[in-house]
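Give me structure tokens for this 172-residue protein.
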Amino acid sequence: MTRVETRSAAGTPPDSRPLLVLLHGVNLDLLGERPAQHYGTVTLLDLEMLVREEADAHGWDCACHQTNHEGDFVELVHRYRQATALLVNPGAWTHYSYAIRDALELVSGPVAEVHLSNVAAREPWRRVSVVADVATVRVAGKGAQGYVEAVRALVALVERSEAAGEDEDATV
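Here you go.
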């Protein structure tokens, strides 16, 4: 898994922090302008700050990206496939992009799929998620708080996995 190496001001050995990668897809750069009844008034910057703060509170670093180009989204997934965890909101690509689904399948850590709106209560085509089967965590309809919930779920999953790995190592 990718971890971010940091050095103290005194130049002491690097401290490795887990890396959470937040990926936003198509049209999410216009949050704050999109229909408030579905997306609220939160902006992309607001969400990024919220996720960074939550990740930092758990001792994690966070990298944030948004793109309106499907191939670029896939490239970001490829680049960060060894990150500790990914939190993704592919936007409309959720419903039909098998390219994104297949890229997410290659991610080594847990993946959270998050949507601001309750996609299950919207148009029939939005009720389908082609990435659901590769997502370890799914949160929808909780607005910005859903992102916080997803970060906490990912941190808990990684901590449980690491603890189980330590237990396994101890029995060898």
